[in-house]
Write a structure and sequence with these properties.
Layout lengths: L13 E5 L3 H12 L3 E5 L3 H5 L7 E3 L10 E4 L12 H8 L4 E2 L1 H11 L5 E6 L4 H14 L4 E5 L16 E5 L2 H4 L9 E4 L7 H4 L2 H9 L10 E5 L5 H8 L5 E5 L9 E3 L3 E4 L2 E5 L8 H17 L7 H6 L9 E6 L2 E5 L6 H8 L5 E6 L1 E2 L14 E7 L3 H10 L4 E5 L1 H15 L3 E4 L3 E2 L7 H16 L9
Parallel strand pairs: 1-2, 1-4, 2-3, 4-5, 6-8, 6-9, 7-8, 9-10, 10-11, 16-21, 17-19, 17-21, 19-20
Antiparallel strand pairs: 12-13, 13-14, 15-16, 18-22
Helix pairs in contact: 5-10, 14-15
């Protein structure tokens, strides 16, 4: 159902790639495979050494940008705020475009004569679940699909799809700022809360970056907007000149929306689409929002309406996103390590009436104060990481029981014992903080939590931490 791009597709084109992480390494490999010549650089020697030798690859620092068709700059390297990286400045002064690898995937497909479609998903929270859910739904509907971008495989590592296929891409604000031609046949902006403001200046700049997902849309395309977006009406008006179909989606019972959820069903203006009572891996209003968005896009892209419910039922939650990783003596352990800010954690806390909550790491601006309305659900908070004392002060002000335990190694057994003592059946890691103080990323943090839970579960029932 899928193939490889022609080996001479970018012959005669010279690209620069700066930053050789997941996206950069894949970009170098793909561009060389398509016939381009590439100059690549990363300050880390191990990243440079991971590249395979190739006659058209030059691994060297950039002294100028002469002859480059484009510079692929790692998403984490700024080209505007808070200050442009010197390589970005060099490229802009030379008139060399700074592009996302997703942009180059689109160009490669069109250069190869391919007509596969593109679906783009963005938002502050929920975009990973929505991306994977949409890909799952399309596959269940018999539509060839490749999924990646900010999540999973880098965009340029995806295969050549047939003309009836769909590329489903999770798009970060960093990636969206670096598009020129990429056209999404279906695009979605789920929600917006303050995040990455150092890179975008303020919420206006952040919103502007996110709205690039709708660039180049026109009649026949679908633009999906979450009902909770700040100033939804203004964003909707911004899309009017495109003449794309705009669909409002909600995870709540808002019949004015085009796609919405009652307590038991996913609906659109034509009636019930799917019974949601047997969809265990999409708990809470926020996941219902994800389901509504994915369904709107899937139907637009050709999925049969009758196949939606089965696809939702067979969906398995992503790792580190409210994923149950173990049960022990009636206590369920939930890994929500992906929740690196208060808004994401609020969505998780709202799904459970009572829990032992493991939180902490490197706090974001505002800390956990926005979670105060949900503190009544917390029987005990166990705090880890660098900013545990910061979180502790907020909890103390709201009279929430807490302990600073510093590490997951202490948190997991103490959480289990506390849950048993307090009669609570849920222990949830939903940190509301970044992970880099103790881990390489939220994935490593979640994996460590899951391993500790599995070690606990492996003990005979009733033994606790003995």
């Amino acid at each position: 159902m899928s193939g490889t791009f022609p080996p001479t597709l970018f012959a005669g084109h010279h690209y620069g790639v700066a930053g050789l992480g997941r996206n950069g390494h894949a970009a170098v490999t793909a561009l060389l495979t398509m016939g381009a010549s590439v100059q690549a650089w990363d300050d880390r020697s191990e990243a440079r050494e991971a590249l395979a030798a190739h006659p058209h690859l030059k691994v060297a620092p950039f002294t100028n940008m002469l002859g480059l068709a484009a510079l692929v700059l790692s998403p984490g390297i700024p080209h505007r705020l808070p200050s442009p990286h010197p390589l970005a400045t060099m490229a802009m002064e030379a008139g060399v475009p700074i592009l996302s690898d997703a942009e180059l995937l689109f160009r490669a497909l069109r250069a190869a004569g391919g007509r596969a479609r593109f679906a783009g998903i963005t938002g502050t929270n929920g975009k990973s679940t929505t991306t994977v859910l949409l890909a799952h739904m399309l596959a269940c509907g018999g539509i060839p699909v490749a999924v990646g971008g900010n999540l999973g495989p880098a965009a340029l590592s995806l295969p050549l799809l047939p003309d009836d296929g769909v590329y489903v891409l999770e798009m970060s604000s960093y990636m969206l700022e670096r598009l020129e031609r990429l056209h999404f046949d279906a695009a979605c902006l789920l929600n917006l809360t303050p995040d990455h403001l150092d890179r975008h200046g303020d919420m206006t700049g952040y919103t502007r970056a996110k709205m690039h997902v709708f660039d180049h849309q026109g009649p026949g395309d679908l633009a999906v907007l979450g009902a909770t977006l700040p100033d939804y009406a203004s964003l909707n008006r911004l899309l009017a000149p495109t003449r794309a179909t705009v669909a409002c989606i909600s995870g709540a019972d808002i019949p004015q929306c085009d796609f919405y959820c009652t307590p038991h069903a996913l609906c659109d203006r034509h009636g019930v689409i799917a019974d949601m009572t047997h969809v265990p891996d999409l708990p809470g209003t926020h996941n219902r929002e994800n389901a509504a968005a994915a369904t709107a896009m899937a139907l637009h892209l050709g999925m049969p309406r009758a196949a939606v419910e089965g696809a939702l039922r067979s969906f398995s939650a992503l790792d580190h996103r409210q994923k149950t990783v173990g049960n022990h003596d009636g206590v369920r352990f939930i890994n929500d390590s992906k929740a690196t800010n208060a808004d994401a954690t609020a969505r998780a806390l709202a799904c459970h009436e009572r829990m032992v909550w493991i939180a902490g790491g490197t706090a974001k601006a505002g800390g956990i104060e926005p979670l105060a309305p949900l503190f009544g659900r917390v029987a005990l908070a166990l705090l880890i990481g660098r900013d545990a004392p910061v979180l502790a002060r907020t909890l103390a002000q709201h009279k929430v029981p807490y302990r600073i335990v510093e590490t997951l190694e202490r948190a997991v057994p103490e959480a289990y014992e506390a849950a048993r003592a307090l009669g609570v059946d849920v222990v949830m890691l939903s940190p509301a903080c970044a992970s880099f103080d103790q881990f390489s990323g939220f994935e490593a943090r979640g994996a460590r939590f899951a391993a500790l839970v599995q070690a606990l579960v492996a003990k005979p029932e009733g033994t606790g931490t003995q």
